[in-house]
Amino acid sequence: MTSVKPLEGTFAGYVDYDQGLVDRRIFSDPDIHRIEMERIFARAWLFMCHESQIPNKGDFFQTYMGENSVIVTRAADQSVQVLLNHCMHRGNTVCKADSGTVSSFMCSYHGWTYDLTGKLVGVPGFKNIYDRQLDKDKWGLRKAAHVESYRGFVFATLDPEAPSLREFLGAPGVHMIDTLANFGDMEVIPGIIKHRLQCNWKSAMENDQDYYHVGISHASLFDSIGEAMDDVNQGYWEDQDGEIIRGEYGHVADTIPEHNHANVFPHMCMFTNLLQAVVIRHPRGPMETEQWYFSFVDKNASEEERRAILQRNIMRLGPGGVIEQDDGENWELSTKGAAAPAMRNVPVNYQMGVGNGELVQESELGFPVMKARRTNEEYARWQYRAWADWMDADSWQGLKANHAHPDHPEKLPTPFER
Quick one: which of 263, 240, 237, 268 has its CA closest to 252? Predict the structure, then answer.
């Protein structure tokens, strides 16, 4: 892994978990973004696709690991490969399609050709120009260090030192995926909803369990379906009990039956009960994010049920949807506000619910949860606390040795000084 140094002391200095304050520079600083790509996105297990998208030999799906283009393929031996989409000759992409079925990948620049495992199998002029001197075995496509699947959800990591996927997810992360997978024999409905926003990827991440904004930001939605705003706000702002799931390495989820949003850090969110969807937030620089929505359905569902799920997700989550237009504008304006020179030394406030939760070691889920108000900013605080752990660790070994444990609050760091 590339050796980098924090900009000012440690990155724990950017996050005051105990007081609920976060340095707003983390949402816009290009140097911080660069380190995020090296220490988070090049190290974490990232969701690639669902196995239903690549069921047969030669099937592929193009996606990203951070800002690296990669191809997920189903090889001849049925193994799943994750290949960096860059020719080893000059770096040109070898695949330009979003998905499909092929027997090989050829660079359109000079014609170097690779098989489904990334092996270099074709070089124009190999005999007459290279005089057979090119060692093709050494010039195959770069690959992800590890690829694993859990219940059909394919993950990969670029870091050879990464722990197993199950260790990364922990019991909370496994529970989050199970919650969606248990809806049936799930598969992805063809067609990924994609759109870009002028916002930092973390602004979108923290919104998934933010129930404080619902009655304000989405007032037009509730008005259109005939729900009184007083009733909506009462449902979210009353002192109602909830359960906050906090996993190691930044995973968070709620257990609200009618919603249930779950985040696998850093970029995957699952909407289970309400939408049966997964959203991936691909960073595109410090102030731009590309969102990809995958809609899931039981393989045994009728065509009518499939259309209903897809139509519902397009209407709510698409770039012209009644939810994402509201949220996207908020995230864009918040990111611009974080970059405003006059606000540079003003922390972002995440103080809702500080000190009000109760850690329950023996929960019905089989792992510790926090009992607290259902509307709470503990979700975001925990994610940013984990963010600092990732950023301060120079290796997976260091991260495993020094990170906050949800069932051991005493391991939290000393708050930063202002």
Answer: 263
